[in-house]
Design goal:
Layout: E1 7-10, E2 13-27, E3 30-39, H1 51-57, E4 60-62, E5 67-72, E6 75-80, H2 83-100
Antiparallel strand pairs: 1-2, 2-3, 4-5, 5-6
């Protein structure tokens, strides 16, 4: 068993990591290598960028505003959520989960 691969809790489900991948994440022109835990489960999210990425980017997240801001050579950059798209993804995920029960 790979020591980086462990069980984790995703959306209140205990799932086993299938793999750990290091991939480049390019955000508003800034390229950072980030570790991803690959899991096989239904989720409203495609990817979750956690504390290591936030720290590496020197970012300030705001859950209230659904935005994240970070410094770049071109000034302060901002990523904002797309609330309508996020709600639709969440509805589809919840509908699929209820059909599985």
């Amino acid at each position: 068993m790979n020591p980086d691969v462990e069980n984790m809790n995703v959306e209140n489900m205990n799932v086993e990591n299938m793999n750990v991948e290091n991939m480049n994440v390019i955000t508003k022109g800034i390229n950072k290598q980030t570790k991803f835990n690959v899991v096989d489960c239904q989720s409203a999210y495609n990817v979750i960028l956690g504390r290591p990425w936030i720290h590496e980017m020197k970012a300030i997240p705001s859950t209230y505003h659904q935005k994240i801001k970070f410094p770049s050579p071109w000034g302060i950059q901002e990523i904002a959520s797309e609330n309508k798209v996020a709600r639709e993804c969440y509805k589809i995920t919840m509908k699929t989960k209820s059909q599985d029960i």
